[in-house]
Amino acid sequence: MRCLRWGMSTTFQASRLASLRVFYSCSIHSIPCLPPPTHSMVFYIVFHIYLTVAYLYVLWRFVLPLPVARSWRALLALLLLAVSKYHLILIAVYGTMFSPEMPHVAVLLAGWLFCAFVLILVFTLLTDLACGVLALWRRVAIKRVFGWRLRSAIAMAALLLSAVGVYQAAQLPEVRRIDVTIEHLPRSLDGLRVVQLTDLHISRLFQKEWVEGVVSRTNALNADAVLISGDLIDGTVEARKDDVAPLGKLAAPLGVIAIPGNHEYYFDADRWIPEFQRLGMRVLVNEHVILQKGADQLVVAGVTDEAAPAFGHEGPNLLRALAGAPLNAPVILLKHRPSGAPDSAAAGVGLQLSGHTHGGMIKGLDLVVRSANQGFVSGSYDIGNMRLYVSNGAGLWNGFPIRLGVPAEITEITLRSGPAL
Q: N or C: which end of the chain has fewer CB within 10 A?
């Protein structure tokens, strides 16, 4: 397809092509990813080592000092052990911890208890740190400060906050509206509206009725296009077929465009991608589409997830995704993880839409999640001439189903024409 001319300088076109070539010749093919089954084994071992250490800490600092009969402490210790090993139990019973096929109520109950355990861990650790400082400053014995009343308060607060957080996580996402200025966006495309959906994680937690609600709210926005940036599901095609069916009702004049996230690869992307296509989505696998409005064009590119090579698929490759795209057309990139955004900016992308982080799920925890995602966790970031938007996601993984101060979202994005950022 021949490039349209909007009076842009040949310098801009040449620099974008050059930056693509230089960047990808240096880095894109060096994404570290362990091959299966080593990848899964290492992940599970590290994950459960962390949880074992967490359990032993809570046992030592929270349970054993309780002034109750030994039998009650033993019972509480066993209960916390079971809760801390919730995901290991799921693997033993269901063969996976990512999408246990158990009743919706059971998912909520187990999620409530596990999230409460994590909050007890955090509150106990923070209390120990505070008591340590107080003991050094005022020479007050830690036992006098961290007594049974404080432990009881911690337990009650954790159970209550966990209940509130799980309830909030299970609700329909609200619509969040933002404007994004894209360099070289034609004036005729100023005001174009797209909806970003990401991290639906359709599962036994987020079932058909919830999906219908998300689709209804999305369609009510009457956007020009719907862009889905990965992690639509948790589970196999057979288990989720009825739950994902409402996605077939998503509608937009310029189409519904999606990419796979890491969870699609966990559950056989070779089967899920054709299923999404059957539901009317254009699934981008290191490729692009051109959205045409009148004489003007907008490129929407999509890349695979970093998890793809571990499952025999090609990793994210923006050079391949943009091959053949008109050099003078602005580019929106769908990339599940926000990591690598500076590289996208260097490659000439105008707007990158990502998810994966769930916004950190809990205020304060977002600091940890940010550190694991190159500093990106939620909202807008300006990187050179590119805008990165990281959505909190519509849903989240059922293994840690909590939201406290980080609401789920359906994102309506209005594109604006303007100069470089």
A: N
Across 276-383, where does the E strand assignment appear?
A: 282-283, 287-293, 296-302, 331-334, 351-354, 379-383
| pLDDT for res 218 | 99
The values of phi and psi at residue 283, to 5°, are -95, 120
Query: Please, which residues have CB within 8 angstroms of residue 291's CB and are 6 or more apart in sequence?
Result: 224, 225, 254, 255, 297, 298, 299, 300
Written as one letter, the residue type at 265 is: Y
At 352, give phi and psi (nearest 5°): -110, 130
Mean pLDDT for the chain? 88
* Tokens coding 386: 């590119």
Tokens of 112: 């409530």
At 153 the three-state DSSP class reads helix
Strand ordering across the sheet containing 351-354: 287-293, 296-302, 331-334, 351-354, 386-390, 379-383
C-alpha–C-alpha distance, residues 21 and 25, integer Å: 6
Q: Give the pairing of strands 351-354 and 225-228.
A: unpaired
Integer Cα distance of 118 and 158 in angstroms: 8
In a 10 Å sphere around its CB, with 0-12 CB exposed, 13-18 middle and 19+ buried, how is residue 265 labelled?
buried
Residues 6 or more apart in contact with residue 46 via CB below 8 angstroms: none
Q: Read out DSSP for 283-309?
A: E-SSEEEEEEETTEEEEEEE---TTGG
Length of the chain: 421
CATH numbers and ranges of domains, the chain:
38-169 (no CATH), 173-418 (3.60.21.10)
Query: pTM value?
Result: 0.87
Question: Where does residue 208 rank: exposed (0-12), middle (13-18), buried (19+ CB within 10 A)?
Answer: middle
Cα–Cα distance measured from residue 413 to residue 195, given in angstroms and rounded to the nearest whole number: 6
pLDDT of residue 2: 30
CA–CA gap between residue 218 and residue 382 (Å, rounded): 26
> Residue 145: what pLDDT?
54
Query: What is the number of other CB atoms lying within 10 angstroms of the CB of residue 338?
Result: 26
pLDDT at 88: 92
Please tell me the predicted confidence (pLDDT) of residue 34: 39
Provide block-wise average pLDDT over 10 residues at a time, the chain (421 residues).
Answer: 33 41 36 43 83 94 89 95 95 89 96 98 90 69 65 94 98 98 92 98 98 99 98 97 98 98 96 98 98 92 96 96 94 97 96 98 92 94 97 97 98 88 50
Q: Tell me the one-letter amino acid at 102.
A: M
